[in-house]
Amino acid sequence: MMSSAHALPASPTATLRLSGGLGFLPRFAWLVLAYNVAAVLWGAVVRATSSGAGCGAHWPLCNGVVVQSHPRLATLIELAHRMSAGVTVIAVLILLVWIFRSTAAGHLSRITVIAATVVIFNESLLGALLVLLRLTADNHSPARAVYLTLHLANTLLLLGALALSADFLSAGEACNRHTVRFTQLPLALTGLVSILLVGMTGTLAALSDTLFPARSFASALAVDFSSTANWLERLRLLHPVSAVVAGLFVCWLLLRGIRRPADRWLTIGVLVLLALQCALGVADVVLLAPLWLQITHLLGADLLWIALVVLAARVCVVGNVRFHTQR
Length: 327
Hints:
Elements: E1 5-6, E2 15-18, H1 25-48, H2 73-102, H3 108-132, H4 142-170, E3 180-182, H5 185-211, H6 217-224, H7 231-234, H8 238-258, H9 264-286, H10 291-316, E4 317-319, E5 322-325
Parallel strand pairs: 2-5
Antiparallel strand pairs: 1-2, 3-4
């Protein structure tokens, strides 16, 4: 289904305004993204409450049965997480079919939704391995940390792919690989990878806070530099260090985005989310990472990641005429 649009003369400031020719599809794509964010937050509740073993070492069944008899709270939490994960797979598959039926060949959303489909099945595989290998609850093994960081990286890639699909759909048929060119893509990819590392090291820090809760801020800081501390506790320092490195890329992206009138509000939103994340990070450390603050911090991180991915795409994807989405 082709989007109705009128093209202005091809000049550096030309704008292509698009109507909602794709119908409800762009909104559905944003809804799928929002649901996945909620599913990610519930997954964090599973980890923070040590409910990952609530269904035992069984997958996809819970405790080896379909219907639970007198389930524990941990079982209900884990079972709800598995059910929400199943809905995400169905939603992404619906989005995949809908996009291929509604867009022209070469539309960028086709590429990103294929990536999202591959990643969502990989997400299910990693989740299953965490359970089957018993890398849940109070497991302290290095393998658990490796799987959790891979799980987090995969989750962020999923959110990024879904965000790009939704944003490309919102731009209509102008977002076609035959009519756009890519600029400064290597720099943008390097920056996004560095931000991905911030999330991965943040997962290690959160796991450390869960397994080795500190009595005070001073004692937690002392442990970070102690040679006798658990390796997970010593790795907590990687999170703030990687955050500083990623911050340099964010500054570059903000400078580029603020110069583009169409993306100015998105750039301001990134700046606000970044400031909020810094404040939540400090509060997380000072208050010794209570559950509600861990979830809030993760929500802010997910929203910031999504906004950064979309802004990077808008900065790097340039057409013969620039497009502006009417939302």
